[in-house]
Write a structure and sequence with these properties.
Number of helices: 14
Radius of gyration: 21 Å
Oligomer: single chain
Strand content: 5-15%
Shape: globular
Order of helices and strands: HEHHEHEHEHEHEHEHEHHHEHEEEH
Length: 399
């Protein structure tokens, strides 16, 4: 027997995509192109492998779950640089390295959600809709009720926090937010972040800020929740999540961190001592040098901007194209050409041999019967420039 809560989780988006596309043929003269998965294809900087090689003698050591002092210091230094924090605001007690933020975002449910006694109402976990599937997994697998907050164009692709009732906030344990957003690429401004953190403190829930795309932006540098916390002089009720997967094109390194409320960090270390994976010491050394280096990130941003330029060149203003403020996804409105994202994905696959993801696979049908992703497709701009150019050239040809 398995945990019955698993039955409450929908199929992961990429399994649904395989079910939709894999039994359909593509043109024989076109090489298939995969633009559905947000897996960075840029090569990480050479200093990653150099650090692993230099610390290869440490593979036989058990790594500390809380991270080496050098790695934690590099994380604090990165956050201080990135968000203009005072040196005294963050300490080593405020950061925790993790084996990729997917693990941490999921495990945070184990840490924070108090399961209801039999007959009592379940706690609430609020997530943006569309959302990263792991947010819902963290809620459901800990017997909490996910509440889906619409994040459509009418409110700038960010949940309208003022539309949430005080009654709902009073039952809320966690609020997940993502900025820059996946899939829409929006960025929360500083006033929005202030409002979110003030609500967390007023109603005593924890604000979880997924900022894994914070280093990939098209124009202005996205603001972060730690800046708001510094304004208040406190990290209470706040955890932020960062990753090297996107920043450094090092998805296979499985390295990220959580930062924020020291009481929560301490408790999270205690939990991870039982169930978390330790990042091996050579990989902690590699993570240290990556967080300490900003030059490779500047080049990364330049390459992603070129891919957005290519999409804009081929699409113009079709499919509701807009330049995402952050991240490397396009969130395209297909209603000028197709009934919904599934229909668009299927025809683009059959005619163009380009694999993209229907937006409804990243969203949930709400109580009104609406799925905010139905009209959209998500396109990942992660491949080499010539592949991105070719993919959008094919798509533009059938519009």
């Amino acid at each position: 027997m398995v945990n019955s809560s698993l039955s409450l989780l929908s199929d992961y988006p990429f399994q649904r995509l395989r079910d939709l596309l894999d039994h359909h043929d593509t043109p024989a003269d076109l090489a298939p192109l995969t633009m559905s998965i947000g897996e960075p294809q840029h090569q990480p900087p050479a200093l990653l492998q150099e650090a692993v090689n230099a610390h290869a003698h440490l593979w036989n050591k058990y790594p500390p779950i809380a991270g080496t002092p050098e790695l934690n210091q590099a994380i604090v230094a990165f956050l201080n640089r990135r968000y203009d924090l005072k040196d005294s605001f963050l300490g080593l007690e405020n950061v925790l390295p993790v084996c990729g933020t997917r693990e941490a975002l999921f495990m945070i449910g184990n840490l924070m959600i108090e399961r209801a006694a039999k007959g009592e109402e379940k706690p609430l976990v609020l997530v943006p809709n569309p959302f990263y599937q792991v947010y819902v997994g963290a809620a459901v697998m800990n017997e909490a009720t996910p509440v889906y907050l619409p994040a459509g164009p009418e409110n700038g692709f960010m949940p309208d926090l003022d539309a949430v009732s005080d009654e709902t906030w009073a039952k809320t344990t966690l609020l997940f937010l993502c900025s820059p957003g996946n899939p829409q690429g929006m960025v929360a401004d500083i006033d929005y972040l202030r409002h979110a953190l003030s609500l967390a403190r007023k109603h005593d829930f924890t604000l979880l800020m997924d900022e894994c795309y914070a280093e990939l932006y098209d124009g202005e540098k996205p603001r972060g929740a730690l800046e708001v916390a510094q304004e208040t002089g406190s990290l209470k009720n706040l955890l932020v999540f960062h990753s090297l997967s996107k920043r450094s094109s090092a998805a296979g390194l499985r390295s990220g961190f959580v930062a924020g409320d020291p009481a929560l960090i301490k408790a999270f270390i205690g939990l991870r001592n039982y169930g978390g994976a330790s990042l091996p010491l050579p990989l902690q050394a590699a993570s240290t040098v990556l967080w300490n280096d900003d030059d490779h990130v500047i080049e990364n941003r330049r390459l992603y901007k070129m891919k957005i330029d290519a999409a804009e060149h081929h699409l113009g203003n079709r499919l509701g194209f807009y330049r995402p403020a952050g991240g490397f996804f396009l969130w395209l409105d297909v209603r000028e050409r197709w009934a919904n994202g599934e229909e668009a994905a299927l025809e683009i696959w059959q005619k163009c041999a380009v694999r993209i993801l229907p937006g409804e696979y990243l969203a949930k049908t709400d109580d009104s019967g609406e799925n905010p992703g139905t009209a959209y497709i998500r396109v990942a701009l992660v491949h080499e420039q010539d592949i991105v150019d070719e993919a959008f050239k094919r798509i533009a040809a059938i519009l």
